[in-house]
Amino acid sequence: MSKTPSTLFDKVWDSHVVRKIDDGPDVFFIDRHFIHEVTSPVAFLGLEGRGLKVMFPEKTFATADHNTPTINQHLPVQDPLSANQLKALERNSAKYGISHWGLGNPKNGIVHVVGPENGITLPGMTIVCGDSHTSTHGAFGAIAFGIGTSEVEMVLTSQCIMQPKPKKMRIIVNGKLGKGITPKDVVLYIISKLTAAGATGYFVEYAGEVFENMSMEGRMTVCNMSIEMGARGGMVAPDETTFNYIKGKDKAPKGEAWDKALAYWKTLKTDAGATFDKEYNFDAADIEPMITYGTNPGMGMGITKHIPTAKAIGSSQATYDKSLNYMGFHEDDEMLGKKVDYVFIGSCTNGRIEDFRAFASIIKGKKKAEHVTAWIVPGSHIVEQQIKDEGILDILLEAGFQLRQPGCSACLAMNDDKIPAGKYAVSTSNRNFEGRQGPGARTMLASPLVAAAAAITGVVTDPRELMVEEL
Amino acid sequence: MAYDKFTVLRSTAVPLPIENVDTDQIIPARFLKATERKGFGDNLFRDWRYNGDDTPKKDFVLNNPIYSGKILVGGKNFGSGSSREHAAWAIYDYGFRCVVSSFFADIFKGNSMNIGILPVTVSEAFLDKIFKSIEANPKAEFEVNLGEQKITILATGESESFDINGYKKHNLMNGYDDIDYLQAMKENIKSFAEQSLY
Ligand code: SF4
């Protein structure tokens, strides 16, 4: 171990640099590469065009998620373009010997859900995918980030990309979260403070009591949204919570290999005295259930508050006006009581078992609001099975909901799950950009609890009002 | 994928003075279903450019024939959001070779350089001057000189220098890409991989 104190990020980054280029990027080695149907086909075409091979096919994992339907997955995919992309992934994986979990495979699901739940994601790894929410895997103390298709091609052919080392930021949240405050609220709160560009150029480490006490699912939710404040990724130091989560997972190390890995993983933390380029401190007591009112994830606020002014959030008036105009909201509006047409729970942000447990805790014994359409989409088949095994499906059905099949679904609306123009959706996903959930769709990002409360009342509601008192 | 070398670009510019232009605006997800890199320019800024019935929106800048050129000028935090390289492809395919802003999202910036688009980061003040000069004369020309790392408003002669790392600059000026570089160091990578825990 080096004597000068270093950060978790430095430890993992520096041990993966194959070569440093003067006045240029690092040649950066990648331990795990995930691919999906949308951002990989052109990379494979590029390989073919150059006559190159895949260097380490066993380090790449393919799953189909972005384009897949969430009903009738056993039938042929209707949209010919989507079907074509799914076939291309299958064909390319087979051709180069890459493991592929396509539609119908019991391990299929959203790439950032299946990686961790199968033990492919491990502490200290470098992980990339042609998808910006690869930051999710940072929850394990990995350096994980999204790349473009040119870089997908680089990883396929050389297991490396060319990356300048980002600067380091630490975000510390101490204290105890109040009732009804979830990891999603923590991260929406942080983004609302830093803005949608506030961490650009940085890699974030999340530290402090709130993250130490958080489950792996919660840490994944937080790291997932690091990109929404511009950060390339975010990470949490691995600890007993991490090790317990990984132990026994399908592809996790076993026996002697486990002991060896564990010894290494325990060194993966920021040393006392290590420095960051930027540091923020927040207090858990200041965090309320959050909801967004605008068209970027930085435009979020405590659910009981009024929409802040352009000046208060540091936006230009023109951009702010365009955004609120799109949403059909006004400065100083109250969000509570606003009508909700759609509710979406799912995505790589909140499509894990804990999210469905939270959702069920609110709707149990109640009925879905009649005018609300709810899309409830597990992040993977494993999550789907857990929902059934734990009796959550019964609670959903009794309250008038239905469960769909896994996939990205309305998070990016590449399949049929599109919110119609002008309609309002409370969504547990990660982006409220114009048209993200369908052309003209109006998205309010929130936690599974807020989504559940909206699904029951049909309006934006503080979930704390519906929570059963703990005894 | 090979691209044209970038040395000096002299062109008019298209102004898009909006902040946080995200990649879902540049190319909405529903147009990402291709398996080849073709035709993305047609759907560049699709939902800002066209109505639901595919008729052009008159007030959007790409539909205004007064504006043209190989330089796109955007408000701060350009290219935020998804990692889709399709956003850079769409911009390139439409005919832009350079995007100017006061702030770029990381992944977009990297993707652009990987396919031969030069992202030029200028100060807020200089960005404002560029917008003003296009407003005063939509046919105003700009010069982006990569060798000298300088952007000039030709009408006034005002210029500002911009940063780019030496490696990327060399690649862009010669039309090289990272894969060429990585191929040349396969042996080093192989021995590195042998030491890897994973
Ligand atoms: S769920 Fe949404 S954010 Fe996550 S991988 Fe799918 S499209 Fe991307």
Explain what this protein looks like in three dimensions:
The complex is a heterodimer of chains A (471) and B (198). Chain A is α/β, with parallel strands linked by helices and 471 residues long. Chain A has 16 helices and 18 strands. Chain A has two domains: 7-288, Aconitase, domain 3, CATH 3.30.499; 290-465, Aconitase, domain 3 (2-Layer Sandwich), CATH 3.30.499. Chain A has a five-stranded parallel β-sheet with strand order 5-4-3-6-7, sandwiched between helices. In chain A, helix 2 (41-50) links the parallel strand 3 and strand 4. The longest helix of chain A is centred in the N-terminal third of the chain and has 17 residues, at 80-96. The radius of gyration of chain A is 21 Å and the shape is globular. By secondary structure, chain B is α/β, with parallel strands linked by helices. Chain B has a single domain (8-196), classed as Aconitase, domain 4 (Alpha-Beta Barrel). In chain B, strand 7 and strand 8 form a beta hairpin. The radius of gyration of chain B is 18 Å and the shape is globular. Chain B starts with 7 loop residues before the first strand and ends with a helix. The model of chain B has no long low-confidence stretch (mean pLDDT 96). The chains are: A alpha/beta (471), B alpha/beta (198). At the A-B interface, helix 2, helix 3, helix 5, strand 8 and helix 11 of A face helix 4, helix 6, helix 7 and helix 8 of B. The structure holds iron/sulfur cluster. Residues 65-66, 110-112, 131, 133, 347-348, 408, 411-412, 429-430 of chain A line the site of iron/sulfur cluster (SF4).
